[in-house]
Amino acid sequence: MTEGKALDTVTTDAAPAPAAAATTAAAPAAAPASSAADAAPAPAPAAAAAAPADAPPRLVVVATHNAHKVPEIAAALDMPGWELVPLAAAAAAAGDTDAGDTDADGSGLGAAAAAAAAPVEDADSFEGNALIKARHAFAYTHRATLADDSGLEVDALDGAPGVHSARYAGDDATDDERIRKLLAALAEVPEARRGARFVCALAFIDEEGNEFLVRGVCEGRIASHPRGTGGFGYDPVFLPADVSDGRTMAELTAEEKNALSHRGRALRALRARLGPPCAIRIAVFDFDGTILEGHSPVRMVYRLFSRRVIPFGVALKVLWWGVRYRLRFPVRQEVVRSYIFASFGSLTAREVDALMADLYHDELAALIRPAARSAMQACREAGEKTVIVSASFRPLLEQTVLDLGADWFICTEMEVLNGLYTGRLLRPAPEGKQKIVQLRAWADETFGVGHWRLVRAFGDHYSDEPLLAAAEAPVAVNPDTLLERIARQQGWRIVDWSIDAPES
Questions:
Q1: pLDDT at 345 over 70
Q2: Whole-number Å distance between alpha carbons of 352 and 345
Q3: What domain range includes position 394?
Q4: 416 pairs with which residues across the strands?
Q5: Is the pLDDT of residue 151 over 90?
Q6: Which of 82, 262, 371, 463 lies 20 to 30 Å from 336 when distance is taken between CA atoms?
Q7: Which of 375, 477, 488 is nearest to 34 (CA)?
Q8: Is the domain of 207 the same as that of 177?
């Protein structure tokens, strides 16, 4: 690298958002509780000029000899106007490959042959090794270069295997042999002390020799035995913290793994650092407990009971569920949904829709928080697309969108057959991690991959954490105990939107 060139670094271990700004490793001081006015968006930064439509692609060399790795990185990075090529191909194109030629290191090897001789990765950090590989490739191609180094850190082993992850059981060891050695080293370690993380460092060198570093982290712990056939390396024994059902990394779908993996997070951080600004900015709002003072399913069940559609015993169970929700105890939302589904059997879909519309106008409209209205209006005035994401039913959210003027909504969609709701869902209910999964799918389809940003998110329940973590400006609204703890740890804004909250 040329003396005096810039070295820029950024780290992220938050849940990902397409083209969102990467967060720094150190969390800021906890934000105090504040009013709705404090949550209003700041003016959007001016967009950078776009490259001409007929501009040639930017050639970026990926410092790898694994040809299959390049299209995977290209798909995850999704940088418009970039063409990624493996090192060997770029080196061959850079100059004569005859053995008699003297190249950058004076070895007498041709460019392709010299580049194929992998550099010694002897740094004591992932960033150091990524830079070694990137600088090696840059020396032989004189092109923008991207390199990565990744591995597993285990707390009980003082961070081992770390930068030696690939050689943990010897240079020629298989994945199974490395896993066996790891599990043997942890044989006497209790589950509570088996914390671990996958780390990926990316080094990028531009055409001028400026260097950039980003890091992606996936927190988790080590399982007692391997499970799953997907992935590679230590995936079968790594339990990601973002997966609540106990699956290992090797048991996740490709989509799930890309969303939370260390490499995926690092690539998104690099894209946020180097990519063009996105034209579409999105602000997303949870409904129950955030926009609405209370919980709509409980009121729905009460209305069904008052009309003798649902039996007293079921209504009593839902009432107890509502008490637990109001007291901020962990609850399962699918329980109430199943009770409501069961009661729909005696009503046509049109009758159910009318019942929900009446519920909104008779009761829920008065419980819409004025602070939520103000925040949504401020987002719209700032040019942001406002979206409501909730596990509530479509007829309720349709009325809410009309009332608040939101741009769109994502909700629980029920199957209709012969004019009746069957009790089956057309897709998973948008709750927990499904909120950000379905928001991304909708935004990618509507605006195009890489053409939107999640600039802010508002939620009240601990299950909203993945959605809030994906936003550039997360806001915890009257949060439950768990979400408040997370918000204070992460430095997220906390606001009181209660209808009876004092005006500030």
A1: no
A2: 10
A3: 283-495
A4: 421
A5: yes
A6: 371
A7: 477
A8: yes
Catalytic residue (choose from 13, 103, 148, 149): 149
Residue 149 falls in the annotated catalytic set: yes
Residue 477 tokens, joined: 């609204």
Average pLDDT score over residue span 466-479: 94
Instruction: Name the pLDDT band for 24 (thresholds 50, 70, 90).
Output: very low
Same domain, 294 and 265: no
Query: Where does the pLDDT of residue 35 fall: very low under 50, low under 70, confident under 90, or very high at 90 and above?
Result: very low
Cα–Cα separations (whole angstroms), residue 266 to 21, 49, 82, 165, 213: 12, 25, 17, 18, 9
Is residue 272 classed exposed, middle or buried when 0-12, 13-18 and 19+ CB atoms within 10 A define those classes?
buried
- CATH number, residue 144: 3.90.950.10
Q: For the chain, how many structural domains are there in total? A: 2
Range with the lowest mean pLDDT among 163-177, 345-359, 372-386? 345-359
Q: Which of 17-26, 243-252, 397-406, 428-437 has the lowest mean pLDDT?
A: 17-26
Q: What is the 3-state secondary structure (H, E, C) of 51-118?
A: CCCCCCCEEEEECCCCCCHHHHHHHHHCCCCEEEEEHHHHHHHHCCCCCCCCCCCCCCCCHHHHHHCC
Residue 393 to residues 79, 341, 353, 390, 398: CA-CA distances in angstroms? 37, 11, 9, 8, 9
Q: What is the spatial distance between Cα 207 and Cα 137, in angstroms, rounded to a whole number?
A: 12
- 283 touches 456 (CB < 8 A): yes
Dist CA 126 CA 132 (whole Å): 10
| CA–CA distance, 87 with 62 (Å, rounded to integer) | 6
Owner of token pair 């970026």: 60
Domain boundary residue among 252, 276, 300? 276
Question: 194-214: string of b/e by CB count within 10 Å (b at 16+)?
Answer: bbbbbbbbbbbbbeebebbbb
Rounded to whole angstroms, how far apart are CA atoms 144 and 62? 9
Tell me the pLDDT band of 42, cut-offs 50, 70 and 90. very low
- For residue 386, the tally of other CB atoms under 10 A from its CB is 22
The top-scoring range by mean pLDDT among 32-36, 160-164, 238-242, 394-398 is 160-164
> Phi and psi (nearest 5°) for 204?
-125, 130
